[in-house]
Write a structure and sequence with these properties.
With 379 residues, the chain is of the alpha+beta class. It is built from 19 helices and eleven strands. Among the domains are: 1-140, Beta Polymerase, domain 2; 142-227, Hydrophobic Seed Protein. Strands 3-4-5-2-1-8-9 form a seven-stranded mixed beta sheet. The chain has a two-stranded antiparallel ribbon with strand order 6-7. The chain has a two-stranded parallel sheet with strand order 10-11. It is elongated, with a radius of gyration of 29 Å.
């Protein structure tokens, strides 16, 4: 089990010394049990926000979650988000609770959470409190909702995508009743903002098990993305945008703008999709395509795509892959061969075509030689 930073114990003990309960809670404890790196430190306590601030007067604090009473404390170089035990009720729009009430009962706080593996907490003596069999679910490698899964998803429909993200990130399976309710409640994703759906999807697409999860929950994803069954079992793409381009490569005009993808992201995905159509058995087509695309991302994408011989072909044809601006000739040289100023751009395009067809090398000597041998290049 991974050890948390030493400042955690200082924070927990300071609250305990003032007569309060305090526990590390949620993903940090789950990750400790799994032996994974701890990303965020969330603490739950029966101290109210004022008491939390009073306890850490000598620390830098931030009130970043006033509605929930969260006080962020900086101890050393680590941020600890400290939140009072709370109850949530009367969820509106299948996403946000209408009322947030503080409580003195730890169980009340834990039972409002989404999944058993996220309801673990730990005290300053490293004792883990597990009220909903989260440890057993970790051992069984499964995601299970706390209590009634239908109620959990109706409260907050984003939990549907969170469940699928945890399944992909941890390579777990979703418990049968939880999975059933994910499928039956998929329509609730209409209530979730496009930004949040995009954010969760990109996190899922960072995981190696993403394609398995998408295949097994295809109808859920189709509620907001035009995905189809995938033949790959593992996602070996290094970027979620590469994986997304792979998933959308056969889709005509996917509406990414309505899902809040930026113009830059859309351009990248469109270029990646274009590159997936490259016929690497046709040298001229290969050279022309690679010359017109952003090679840094395209090369990485195609190396991770299903074209096993792409690297060899690229290295073989690299000398002829270039853009108009990369031609090793300037207007002054072209004018020496009798061409007028307004003809220079046409001559450069003709020379680029010659390079792409591998009739001439993209060198100053090669291009000048081509001009010398072809005095009527425009005819």
């Amino acid at each position: 089990m991974n050890r948390p930073v030493k400042e955690l114990y200082d924070v927990l003990k300071r609250l305990e010394e003032r007569g309060y309960e305090a526990y590390l809670v949620g993903g940090a404890v789950r990750d400790m049990v799994l032996g994974a790196p701890i990303k965020d430190y969330d603490i739950t306590t029966n101290a109210d926000p004022n008491a939390i601030r009073m306890a850490f007067q000598d620390h830098k604090t931030y009130d970043l979650g006033k509605k929930h009473g969260t006080v962020t404390v900086l101890a050393g170089t680590t941020k600890f988000e400290i939140t009072p035990f709370r109850l949530e009720d009367d969820y509106r729009d299948h996403r946000h609770p209408e009322t947030v009430l503080f409580t003195s009962d730890l169980k009340d706080d834990l039972k409002r959470r989404d999944f058993t593996i996220n309801a673990l907490c730990m005290d300053s003596n490293d004792q883990i409190i597990d009220l909903f069999d989260g440890i057993r679910d970790i051992e069984n490698r499964q995601i299970r909702a706390i209590g009634d899964p239908k109620a959990r998803f109706n409260e907050d429909a984003l939990r549907i995508l969170r469940a699928l993200r945890f399944e992909a990130a941890l390579d777990f399976e979703i418990e049968a009743e939880t999975k059933k309710q994910i499928e039956e409640c998929a329509y609730l994703l209409e209530c979730i903002s496009a930004e949040r759906k995009k954010e969760e999807l990109l996190k899922i697409l960072c995981c190696q098990s993403a394609f398995r999860v998408i295949n097994e929950n295809l109808r859920v994803f189709q509620a907001f993305m035009p995905f189809h069954r995938i033949t790959r079992t593992r996602n070996n793409f290094s970027s979620p945008f590469y994986a997304l381009a792979y998933l959308l490569r056969n889709e005509k005009d996917p509406d990414l703008r309505s899902l809040k993808y930026s113009n830059q992201e859309i351009r990248l995905i469109e270029e990646l999709i274009r590159s997936s159509k490259i016929d690497i058995s046709d040298d001229t087509h290969f050279i022309e395509c690679l010359s017109s695309l952003d090679q840094k991302d395209i090369l990485r994408f195609l190396n991770q795509y299903h074209r096993k011989d792409f690297n060899d072909r690229f290295e073989k044809l690299r000398p002829w892959i270039c853009t108009l601006n990369e031609l090793k000739i300037d207007g002054k040289t072209i004018r020496k061969y009798g061409y007028r100023e307004k003809q220079i751009s046409q001559i450069k395009q003709k020379l680029l075509d010659q390079v792409h067809q591998r009739k001439v090398n993209n060198t100053a000597e090669g291009l000048e030689s081509c001009l010398a041998k072809n005095p009527s290049l425009l005819s």
